[in-house]
Amino acid sequence: MVLPITAYGDPVLRKKAKEVPTDYPNLKELVENMWETMYGAYGVGLAAPQVGLPIRLFLIDTAPFAEDEDLSEEERKDLENLKKVFINATILEENGDEWAFNEGCLSIPDIREDVFRKPEITIEYYDEDFNKHTEKYDGLAARVIQHEYDHIEGILFTDKLSSLKKRLIKGKLSNISKGKINVEYRMRFPEVKKGR
């Protein structure tokens, strides 16, 4: 089932998400719905807060990046096969010199900006069967994970922009939060306050 994606301005996107208990009701169904929602919106990652749930769960599928001609054969292969669910994740380390990449977000449609992130991460997480993993990622894979991880920490990519860039996109962000935007996927907008 395709779930509506929570739009910028909704308080759930600003909450530090809570741990997912092993007995979380209908977890497998939620994960399936999140895959369907992400693919339906042509995303490469989706976090639970983006479907209105303040829990530490996100998933990624970096296959669309594997079509990039500038990548090595090995990098393309790695990205093509990286499809994972991350539960109760903790980034243990971020290393290297920050590099810029143009990011977007399904909760913030029609805005793309260069964001600086470190190129290498070590992350600890549980998969959908609650098996624990500690893994290292780099390059685009690390970036997609960092972006989704930020969602479960209540952080959006727009928070990482310079104050000038933030001022330049302020009007667009306001329109998104008011539902004044056309998107090709279902979205849930914050309720507009009346009478003020």
- In angstroms, what is the radius of gyration? 17 Å
The total count of strands amounts to 9
Largest sheet, in brief, is: 5 strands, antiparallel
Average pLDDT across residues?
94
Tell me the CATH architecture.
Alpha-Beta Complex
Q: What is the count of helical runs?
A: 4
Strand order of the largest sheet: 2-3-4-7-8
Beta content: 25-35%
Note the run of SSEs as H and E: EHEEHEEEEEHHE
How much helicity do the residues have? 25-40%
Family: Belongs to the polypeptide deformylase family.
Cofactor: Fe(2+)
Enzyme class: hydrolase
Catalytic activity: N-terminal N-formyl-L-methionyl-[peptide] + H2O = N-terminal L-methionyl-[peptide] + formate
Question: Can you describe this structure?
Answer:
Belongs to the polypeptide deformylase family. GO terms for molecular function: peptide deformylase activity. Its EC number is 3.5.1.88. Its cofactor is Fe(2+). Removes the formyl group from the N-terminal Met of newly synthesized proteins. Requires at least a dipeptide for an efficient rate of reaction. N-terminal L-methionine is a prerequisite for activity but the enzyme has broad specificity at other positions. The protein is α+β, with helices and mostly antiparallel strands and 196 residues long. It has a single domain (5-188), classed as Peptide deformylase (Peptide Deformylase, Alpha-Beta Complex), CATH 3.90.45. The protein is built from 4 helices and 9 strands, in the order E-H-E-E-H-E-E-E-E-E-H-H-E. Strands 2-3-4-7-8 form a 5-stranded antiparallel beta sheet, with helices on both faces. Strands 1-9 form a two-stranded parallel ribbon. Strand 7 (120-126) and strand 8 (132-138) form a beta hairpin. The longest helix has 15 residues, at 163-177. The model has no long low-confidence stretch (mean pLDDT 94).
